[in-house]
Amino acid sequence: MAQINENYLKLPGSYLFSDIAKKVAAYQAEHPEKEVIKMGIGDVTRPLVPAVIEAMHKAVDEMGTAEGFRGYGPEQGYDFLREKIVENDYAGLGIEPDEIFVSDGAKSDCGNIGDIFGPDNKVAVCDPVYPVYVDTNAMAGRAGDFAGDKWSNLYYMPCTAENGFMPELPKEKVDMIYLCFPNNPTGETLTKEQLKSWVDYARENGSVILFDSAYEAFITEADVPHSIYEVEGAKEVAIEFRSFSKTAGFTGTRCAYTVVPKALKVNGTELNALWNRRQCTKFNGVPYVIQRAAEAVYTEEGRAQIRENIDYYLGNARIIRDALEKAGLEVYGGVNSPYVWAKTPDGMKSWDFFDKLLTEAGVVTTPGSGFGPSGEGYIRFTAFSTKENTEKAMDRITNILK
Ligand code: MLT
């Protein structure tokens, strides 16, 4: 008889963002007259920029000609894109094109990367945390059992207002460490010096850091590292995930990449070779048309156009921060990040405040507790709505919090 992967049965409920989508759909079905503003999942709203669209059109036309048609592409991504990524995103950092693996998303890669790690690794995650790191390790059997609000085998690193949302170095030996900075969900960042302490820890303990840098394009302050490889020695201990989703509006188009340096070895085995083996077996590459579109992000026009969008979203983040602060909430993030993390008023539970905002203000957010136990008592707003809707949402929230 066939057996299932019983680790799936241990997963509580459904995936956080599907849960919220279902809740919102049910509310809308009951109240079709109410206009709901979505500031929950971090999905962009601005259209793809002209440089990207032009490159896509050109690539589509190429695909319709005998000379330009392409079938299966390289599983690791076309050289034209890998080279552009290295030249632009890793200039001076010593990363080579064959250390870049183009993929359909940082979410998929953050989940799939677990394939190349053993089942007994001790995994450390920030708390609150992007749920993909936790759920995919639970699926792989590395998380143990879900008891109350935590997994028995995960090492949780609380990130709270008290410690400035900065995880403390683990007090025990851990093998895989997920770090996401600028952080999802808190929107907070760390300095190069702080990141160095993690690289040092990993080097001393033989751990691998899985560094999610999906929001680096939103960094506005100096001394906030864009890549973990800015820290010396990181190439020997870290894998980095980047995405075109939030940077260039590719959430629906799908394109990202993962950097696996050849210097990164576990027990003498190069992880670059293992990830290559994994990708060649389970993945057939990102469509040619999409990779040409991603390449256009690095042109002069492309850069300027995506910058305008990022600044637009950062402007929304400012509107959210200002309004919530004026309404008397404690507010974090939103300066180097599209996420604003706010303390709920009067000690309200995250889901209760989520319900209040949905039913009284018609605004969808993400409850902090959905990201882990230390997220309880917080709520997350995204800045990816339109400016008009962001302002409207803030007016409504200001009114109900009076
Ligand atoms: C989020 O809202 O946390 C992200 O958009 C989810 C994702 O990128 O998968």
Can you walk me through this structure?
InterPro entries: Aminotransferase_I/II_large, DapL/ALD1, PyrdxlP-dep_Trfase, PyrdxlP-dep_Trfase_major, PyrdxlP-dep_Trfase_small. With 402 residues, the chain is of the alpha/beta class. The chain has twelve helices and 17 strands. The mean pLDDT is 97. The structure holds D-malate.
Which SSEs are present, and which pair or pack?
Blueprint: H1 16-30, E1 37-38, H2 50-63, H3 79-89, E2 100-103, H4 106-112, E3 123-127, H5 131-139, E4 146-147, E5 150-151, E6 155-158, E7 176-180, H6 192-205, E8 208-212, E9 238-243, H7 245-248, E10 256-259, E11 265-266, E12 269-270, H8 271-282, H9 288-295, H10 300-326, E13 331-333, E14 339-343, H11 350-361, E15 363-364, E16 366-367, E17 378-382, H12 387-401
Parallel strand pairs: 1-15, 3-6, 3-7, 7-8, 8-9
Antiparallel strand pairs: 2-10, 4-5, 9-10, 11-12, 13-14, 14-17, 16-17
Helix pairs in contact: 2-9, 3-9, 4-5, 10-12
The protein binds D-malate (MLT).
D-malate binds next to loops.
